[in-house]
């Protein structure tokens, strides 16, 4: 057990929590991608492709845009392995997975969104991106994977249409950046931003919030 | 006023005209993206996403392809701010914007296409891309944003189907490259190429030109 | 003739066979892209765009992901020229091309897939990508172009749905990597992997193999 763990977490002694949390988010998003694949009647390979794309697409797009190539998920086998594990779990245990209550899935998804958004904003700042665009990168990291998945299925991506989702990522990133601006410690700023993103998303689902539209007559 | 301008144009004293023109093109394309979003009944966030994608998608794809990462529009907040300003203007003043005569929109769009195509070819050359592929990069810069927008809306992109649009960008870029080849000054070569692109596009709209097709029986 | 050849193969005296084979694969995929374009009733420009995207899209995505920018097909005019030659050949000689027996097209396509997959895995390894992800890059190189084509036409990409196609690329890449692992020479490992990929694809077409699915009740 210890040796197996050591293969996954060799030199990340300090950041081991961060990495573990990141992999959990990857797993959750991969599960969602795989469930979409099954509803679209794709075969095993299509399912694995959608798992990978949903879980890691957002981070890949962000890394390509901020110039961090090869992207983390291409450089580090653990991300891909986690995404495929999530997809495989759904493939083999679909009858159990589909009984997971929707409320739990929405909650895990909101947690994954918060995590990915904060990680995205933080990485963009590290690469010297302007704060205005770092908030954008937070949204790209959070919703990019789902967008790639929807484009592959020839759907209009949810992000263009749906209730408060990418907006929650943006709001969380703005809170994080404001806190960093007044010299709050990084770990606290990220936690606060993440809580804002998560809460906003959950409240929006609960109260059926949606963004304003222009009406065409 | 002067201080506010200085935030936008701090160190570009020489290239201030070029930058201003580039931002105007970005604004025009963002307005078009936002109008498409309203016709597709997207909410405010979807509208801003389409504004950004339409205005800056072509340049982002070009920069990623020629290795100029992070792309300009990710590195420099003024492009994103301009795109969102264009989108926001449409959101708040849609009733006025929809009264703009179509002829004016087509003209501004052709001007934006000419500008983006020339800028794209010029930047590709700066990065040491072969002239044959620099003309391709001109077309990618001009039509990439609209293509991303159409893919997000799950439409077949206009560029694959429409009358003379990307072809005008290609023709303008070829003229520019030929003039550069015979040692004409860069600013003149770009202006001539831009005029060719703009004129070709306007004449094509006016005379309903289209490209040949293979008929399938 | 010799001078014309020298423009295409100037400094690749050793790798001349590899390059020639690569260009043949590009030509075959471009022809397939162009035929799809004609069936979708696109005009000449749309046909050339689909030829380029189908033939070179997979390699471009791989190169962007592994950090080999600008991608080969943007840096080297011969790839683009070959893709456009393939598209142009279909445009001008469609009545002859459509009489090519489907079996020959499937065979050439499987050969192109095998070649692109091996080239993709090899290049990923050269750029220091982990073997697990190098096999993914093999699949991306093989099926990426067709996926871009299908997304542009607003179809669900074949790779998500079809019989054994990307799987053949993965299997071939795994064989190649295992052989490299036990210190077999590179050229032999690539040949064996390619043969596995090609054979698997052909047998799958012949016997109507497909991958398992989860049934939704």
TrEMBL record, chains A, B, C:
Question: Would the keyword Phosphoprotein be found if you checked this record's keyword annotation?
Answer: no
Membrane topology summary = Multi-pass membrane protein
Q: Where in the cell is it found?
A: Cell membrane
InterPro entries in UniProt: Gly_transporter (IPR005115)
The entry's keywords: Cell membrane, Membrane, Transmembrane, Transmembrane helix
| Every Glycine transporter domain range | 20-94, 107-179
Q: Where are the transmembrane segments?
A: 16-38, 44-65, 77-97, 103-125, 132-152, 164-181, 188-209
The UniProt record lists the keyword GTP-binding: no
- A Pfam family matched in the record: Gly_transporter
Which Gene Ontology cellular-component terms appear in the entry?
plasma membrane
Domain of life of the native organism: Bacteria
Family, according to the entry, reads as follows: Belongs to the UPF0126 family.
Q: What's the protein here called?
A: Putative membrane protein YeiH
């Amino acid at each position: 057990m210890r040796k197996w763990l050591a293969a996954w977490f060799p030199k990340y002694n300090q950041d081991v929590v961060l990495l573990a949390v990141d992999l959990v988010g990857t797993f959750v998003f991969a599960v969602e991608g795989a469930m979409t694949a099954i509803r679209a009647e794709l075969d095993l390979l299509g399912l694995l492709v959608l798992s990978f794309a949903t879980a890691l697409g957002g981070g890949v797009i962000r890394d390509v845009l901020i110039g961090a190539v090869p992207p983390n998920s291409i450089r580090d086998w653990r991300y891909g392995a986690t995404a495929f594990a999530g997809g495989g779990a759904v493939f083999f245990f679909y009858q159990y997975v589909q009984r997971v209550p929707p409320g739990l899935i929405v909650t895990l998804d909101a947690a994954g969104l918060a995590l990915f958004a904060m990680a995205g904003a933080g990485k963009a700042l590290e690469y010297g991106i302007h704060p205005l665009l770092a908030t954008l990168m937070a949204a790209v990291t959070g919703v990019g994977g789902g967008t790639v998945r929807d484009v592959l299925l020839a759907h209009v991506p949810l992000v263009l249409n749906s209730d408060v989702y990418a907006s929650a990522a943006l709001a969380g990133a703005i809170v994080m950046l404001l806190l960093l601006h007044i010299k709050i410690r990084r770990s606290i700023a990220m936690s606060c931003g993440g809580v804002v993103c998560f809460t906003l998303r959950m409240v929006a689902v609960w109260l059926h919030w949606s963004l304003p539209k222009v009406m065409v007559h």
